[in-house]
Design brief:
heterodimer; A: alpha/beta; 2 domains; 10-stranded mixed beta sheet; 10 helices; 20 strands; B: 4-stranded antiparallel beta sheet
């Protein structure tokens, strides 16, 4: 039985476990039908032309976690931002870990999707927002059909969340191969401000396939600052589907740092439903070996006077492959749009590949839109400059790569994240420069 | 200290240096002058170990060791310093962090531990003062947004920090206004000693009013075609390079 059949047939059993009378019942049923019709994407789909899931789908994944697994703080610590105070919503093999988490209902709800889905108190929010911006493609629908757990964050009007929120999904490898489908819902109401860090981490080499869906709603004048830290084990695959719906004058920043994993696909799609909206999508990808990272972005400018900024940097070593497909749509009504996109890449080996494809669809006539893409090698004269000062080749390379990604790192607003990321970069490049970059 | 015998070098199969002979002893200042395209910058890059240049004939000895097989960083560790005509910008890495890395990597190569932070700070303060460099300047990203003069002053600051045996200053005077030139030159003069040597690569005589050379060499078409004392520089300033070209081409 292939994975698709396995999932479709296990849906029945799953449905019996969840409350069939819930309003979600219908949403789930529709979703599984879409997945049944569409299945997993293949290279025949234009949006998946350069990314193949074939070998990944061959594993015999367990689709429901069989047991609850505990994790000591000491085992989890190094993957958490522990040097600062944060709210934490932590999952182990798809199950919530109250032991590692720190949630709240004081002024805002930072808690679990499972309680939000089952508690009448949250019904209105769920009805208004759940599955409202997520796309209805095969993968997102598959997640919707089985969505039971993840982070539920609702920041009510005029709140400044006093510390960042960490969402971490661990997998312990207690089963041979596991498929996880976290579902996060983030609603930020008028004038509120929140910072969120998301991470998926497997703790063994057992294969993990994560098909995650995150819906973010930034209401009027809300500010959402979101960081995705992707530095997983070599047998972990992540399909991250993140959909953002912005209302007028909201600002939403999503930073995606992709350093690890076997295959990562980021579907990051923004919809601007209001005027004077600002959307920022920044990314740094540094991979090697046979790793593959695919950024599929969309910014849909629907109304006038909005901006979007995309800045993706990639460094590819060995036989790694990267994809950047950045789509910008500017509706006829969306006059005075400023949409900028840039994708710069460095290939460190002859066998590394990057496929960069900007896709601008502009229907308005009074707009400023630009895109630029570069693919190059490390600058030889810069290398000579540093080496002539006594800095060895490896360290010189690291400094140059760091400099290359610097403008994205500069835009990180949480210093602890910035220093964590520069440490990961130094580790990846195998250097110790004796100072925090 | 530096001995160059019959040096031929080419880049992408184009011969640029065609038989250079030069000896620089400790305590000396040599100026290498010449018209554009004569091979001045190539010579400095070849001494510093730029890989794109291929030495096709001849040898370079530094402290009696043939350095042909050494990488640029190994030559730096032995005490060769090249001040660049066009220093490279490195966003996100401060002047301080860059020089710390350079110093500690050099120490590491010599089997020494990192310089204690306190000593490093003291040294930085001392050398910054010498070159009239503002403290704020040191925390800026290396060369990013620096004016021409700031870039050159920063090069000499790095030289002061690294205390090389042989400093090659490639067109350090270009892009400098008179005040910056004075500061840079007085910095170089203060760092000069009987144990180190300086090679000034320059197109104009201007710098040589401030840093007085013991020897002046004229490079043309990849060869040193004339050598003399400091008065040769004055002669070149007055008469230009044409008379030399005529002599050689005749």
């Amino acid at each position: 039985m292939d994975l698709k059949e396995k999932l479709v047939s296990s849906f029945m059993a799953f449905e019996n476990k969840v409350d069939v009378d819930a309003p979600l019942h219908q949403i789930r049923n529709e979703a599984i039908k879409i997945f049944e019709a569409e299945g997993f994407p293949s290279k025949k789909d234009e949006a998946w032309k350069y990314t193949s899931l074939n070998s990944i789908l061959k594993e015999d994944y367990s689709v429901f976690p069989k047991q609850e697994n505990a994790l000591e703080f000491s085992e989890a610590k190094s993957y958490m931002l522990h040097e600062m105070d944060t709210y934490k919503i932590i999952f182990i093999d798809g199950k919530y870990s109250s032991h590692l988490s720190q949630t709240t209902h004081d002024g805002f709800d930072i808690c679990l999707m499972s309680s939000a889905l089952n508690n009448p108190k949250y019904r209105l929010v769920i009805e208004n927002y759940f599955n409202k911006v997520a796309e209805k493609d095969g993968l997102s629908s598959l997640n919707t059909a089985f969505a039971t757990e993840g982070a539920y964050i609702h920041i009510k009007k005029n709140k400044l969340v006093n510390k960042p929120i960490q969402i971490i999904h661990f997998s312990t490898g207690s089963e041979e191969a596991v498929m996880l489908q976290p579902r996060n819902l983030i609603v930020v109401d008028e004038n509120s401000h929140v910072q969120i860090i998301e991470r998926h981490q497997s703790l063994t080499d057992n294969p993990v396939l994560t098909n995650s869906v995150t819906e973010i709603f930034a209401n009027k004048r809300a500010i959402v600052d979101y960081y995705k830290l992707q530095n997983d084990n070599e047998n972990a695959t992540l399909i991250d589907n993140t959909f953002v719906n912005q209302k007028q004058e909201s600002h939403c920043f999503v930073h995606t740092f992709s350093f690890g994993g076997k295959l990562v696909r980021n579907n990051l799609h923004f919809y601007q439903n209001g005027e004077r909206i600002d959307s920022t999508l920044n990314g740094v990808t540094i991979i090697g070996k046979k790793q593959h990272v695919d950024h599929n972005t969309l910014v849909h400018h629907i109304e006038p006077n909005c901006e979007s900024h995309q800045d993706y940097k990639g460094i590819f070593a060995d036989k790694s492959t990267g994809v950047f497909n950045g789509r910008v749509i500017v509706n006829k009504e969306a006059q005075k749009t400023n949409a900028f996109q840039s994708n710069n890449n460095i290939l460190l080996s002859d066998k590394a590949t990057i496929n960069s494809k900007p896709q601008l669809e502009i229907f308005a006539d009074d707009v400023k839109c630009s895109h630029g893409c570069t693919i190059g090698q490390l600058d030889e004269s810069a290398m000579f400059y540093m080496r002539s000062r006594g800095i060895p080749e490896k360290e010189a390379k690291a400094l140059l790569m760091y400099a290359f990604t610097n403008n994205v790192l500069e835009s990180v607003k949480i210093p602890e994240i910035k220093s964590r990321i520069t440490k990961i970069i130094a580790e990846k490049l195998g250097v110790n420069l004796g100072f925090d970059l | 200290m530096l001995k160059i015998n019959n040096l031929h070098a080419s880049v992408e199969d184009k011969a640029i240096l065609k038989g250079i002979n030069l000896e620089v002893k400790a305590g000396e200042v040599h100026a290498i002058m010449g018209p554009n395209g004569s091979g001045k910058s190539t010579l400095s890059s070849v001494i510093a170990g730029k890989e794109e240049y291929e030495v096709t004939e001849g040898e370079i000895f530094f402290d009696e060791e043939n350095i042909e097989e050494l990488s640029a960083e190994e030559r730096a560790h032995k005490g060769i310093f090249l001040s660049f005509q066009y220093p490279v910008e490195i966003p996100g890495v401060s002047v301080t962090n860059f020089i710390k890395t350079a110093i500690n990597e050099t120490r590491k190569a010599k089997g020494l531990p990192d310089m204690p932070a306190k000593d490093m700070l003291k040294l930085i303060r001392e050398k910054a003062e010498l070159l009239e460099i503002d403290r704020k300047f040191l925390s800026r990203s290396l060369n990013q947004g620096f004016s021409g003069g700031e870039k050159k002053r920063n090069e000499i600051f790095q030289m002061a920090m690294l205390e090389p045996k042989l400093a090659i200053l490639d067109e350090t005077d270009s892009g400098l206004d008179i005040d910056a030139l004075r500061i840079v030159a007085s910095g170089v003069n203060k760092l000069k000693s009987k144990d180190n040597a300086v090679i000034l690569i320059t197109h104009y005589q201007r710098l040589l009013d401030y840093i007085v050379p013991d020897f002046v060499h004229v490079l043309y078409k990849g060869r040193i075609v004339k050598s003399g004392g400091k008065e040769l520089a004055h002669e070149l300033e007055e008469k230009g390079y044409d008379w030399i070209k005529e002599e050689v081409d005749a």
